């Protein structure tokens, strides 16, 4: 026989589960392959039962990434008003590379527009592959070009790496906590915990997305 206390606990859990809607997250990436591959694999590995994650790779300039994210956010808001079972995005991430030696000319406009529309800008300086390197080593040595980052990744840590490589996720996933720690320490020790990473070579805020998803798992 189930006790009254246990019945109350079970009822509370049912009510709590009913009242807490699914989280809805949008991740719009500048790259068509590298970043979407990583986030899609992370989504699968974390088995986020109560989180809807939409991941889009644009293969476009920073301003195009932000424009598309704004468009998707507005569309989601319209649908949520019409359909009760739909919810607006809880958070929208724009994952963008600063690039080196010359940042993309649309980057300042992209950052300003994203902030104006309450989107989270996730910059990597010079590029997303620096996040991969942080899984293996804490390094603050600047990179001359974005290609140097990729060459270092291949030469020192993962020879098979390419932008369409799907094997690297299994290698880095087990080192996720190291990458988060290294990324935070680099920001604190070398860039004064900067929010704008355009002048912070090397650095990344990818750990912010990863930590958020880990909390939801």
> How would you state the average pLDDT, rounded?
90
Span of the ends, CA to CA: 33 Å
**What percentage of the residues does DSSP assign to strands (E)?**
5-15%
Number of domains: 1
Explained architecture:
A five-stranded mixed beta sheet has the order 2-1-3-4-5, with helices on both faces. 50% of the residues lie in helices and 13% in strands. It has one domain (21-216). It is of the alpha/beta class. Residues 15-19 have low confidence and may be disordered.
Question: Can you give keywords for this protein?
Answer:
9 helices; 217 residues; 5 strands; 5-stranded mixed sheet; single chain; alpha/beta
In terms of topology, how is this protein built?
Blueprint lengths: L3 H16 L3 E7 L4 H13 L4 E7 L4 H21 L8 E7 L9 H10 L3 E6 L3 H5 L12 H11 L11 H6 L2 H16 L11 E2 L1 H11 L1
Parallel strand pairs: 1-2, 1-3, 3-4
Antiparallel strand pairs: 4-5
Q: In a nutshell, what does this entry contain?
A:
With 217 residues, the chain is of the alpha/beta class.
């Amino acid at each position: 026989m189930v006790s009254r206390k246990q019945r109350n606990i079970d009822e509370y859990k049912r009510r709590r589960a009913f009242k807490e809607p699914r989280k809805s997250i949008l991740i719009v990436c500048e790259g068509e392959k590298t970043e979407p591959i990583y986030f899609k694999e992370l989504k699968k590995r974390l088995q986020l039962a109560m989180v809807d994650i939409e991941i889009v790779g644009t293969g476009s300039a920073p301003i195009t990434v932000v424009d598309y994210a704004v468009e998707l956010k507005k569309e989601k808001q319209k649908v949520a008003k019409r359909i009760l079972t739909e919810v607006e995005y809880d958070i929208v991430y724009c994952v963008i590379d600063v690039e080196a030696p010359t940042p993309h000319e649309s980057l300042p406009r992209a950052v300003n527009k994203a902030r104006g529309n309450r989107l989270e800008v996730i910059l990597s300086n010079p590029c997303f592959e620096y996040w991969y390197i942080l899984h293996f080593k804490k390094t603050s040595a600047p990179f001359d070009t974005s290609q140097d980052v990729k060459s270092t990744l291949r030469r020192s840590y993962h020879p098979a790496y390419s932008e369409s490589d799907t094997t690297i996720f299994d290698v880095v996933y087990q080192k996720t906590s190291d990458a988060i720690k290294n990324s935070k320490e680099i920001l604190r020790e070398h860039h004064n915990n900067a929010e704008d990473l355009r002048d912070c070579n090397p650095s990344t805020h990818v750990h912010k997305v990863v930590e958020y998803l880990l909390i939801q798992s």
